[in-house]
Amino acid sequence: MSLNRFFYLKIENVGNETAYDVRISINASFLDKMLIQDFKNFLYNLCQKKLFLPPNKVMYYLLSPIYSSSSLTIQHTSYSCQEINSNLDILINEPFVITGTYNGNRKITETLTINQCTGSVVVDSPKVQKLDDIYKELKNMNRKLQNIACKNKLES
């Protein structure tokens, strides 16, 4: 998924039961191509530990900045827009394979690309951010209206 200038790996328990002893592995060929060492380290650390995910729990891990026309500084390291965009050209269609286990015997296997997860190329732009903010606000208002309608039905 993409949000606020970055692509993220979203890990979510969409089930009704708690997932315990969750172990995840991400292919080294994807990790090795990542430009930003801190993002790579977060994912590497994710692969080293067991997770506990209650129902509807969501976790986000940074993968890459989106295409940009400006430089970016992360943890005192600056990256030019050329570096970011060149690396994203490599990563956007690079398969990343997520494998793992949970609850003792259940297995996870997913092969994705950043491009598949977004459905389109995202470009850093104030207009795009504003539209995204409007979309989120409309979604929030729609949820509130649905709650009011539901409450009115119950009172009738």
Description:
Helices cover about 40% and strands about 30% of the residues. By secondary structure, it is α+β, with helices and mostly antiparallel strands. It folds into 2 domains: about 1-120, Immunoglobulin-like (Sandwich); about 125-155. A 4-stranded antiparallel β-sheet has the order 4-3-8-9. A 3-stranded antiparallel β-sheet has the order 1-2-5. Strands 6-7 form a two-stranded antiparallel ribbon. Strand 8 and strand 9 (about 105-110) form a beta hairpin. The protein is flat. Residues about 120-125 have low confidence and may be disordered.
Which properties best describe this structure?
single chain; 156 residues; alpha+beta; Immunoglobulin-like; 3-stranded antiparallel sheet; 5 helices; 40% helix
Give the SSE map.
Blueprint: E1 2-3, E2 6-12, E3 19-26, H1 28-31, H2 37-48, E4 51-53, E5 58-65, E6 72-74, E7 77-79, H3 81-91, E8 96-102, E9 106-112, H4 114-118, H5 126-155
Antiparallel strand pairs: 1-2, 2-5, 3-4, 3-8, 6-7, 8-9
